[in-house]
Amino acid sequence: MITCAFGYLLAEVPLSARNILENPELKNGVKGFSHWPTFPQIFINGEFIGRSDIILIMHQSVELKDKLIHLLPKVDKEE
């Protein structure tokens, strides 16, 4: 059971993940795309956001919620 707003938000946002460590070509491609040498790397809608420490800072400042809120499924307000 999710007990915090951030967890609820992430549970509702469609996510995907790739294990780039299994594919050196993909790993180098991601590094080249983001211009960032270390992993993990977080992308939202194809935009490189940062590593897990950046995501934590964004969560603490509510900036992450603002980036993710538009990805939530639309809910009919009359329901």
UniProtKB/TrEMBL annotation:
Q: Where is the Glutaredoxin domain?
A: 13-49
PROSITE patterns, sorted = GLUTAREDOXIN_2
Print the keywords alphabetically: Redox-active center
| Cellular component annotations (GO), alphabetically ordered | mitochondrial matrix
Q: Where are the transmembrane segments?
A: none
Q: Which family does it belong to?
A: Belongs to the glutaredoxin family. CGFS subfamily.
Q: What is this protein called?
A: Glutaredoxin domain-containing protein
Record organism: Coptis chinensis
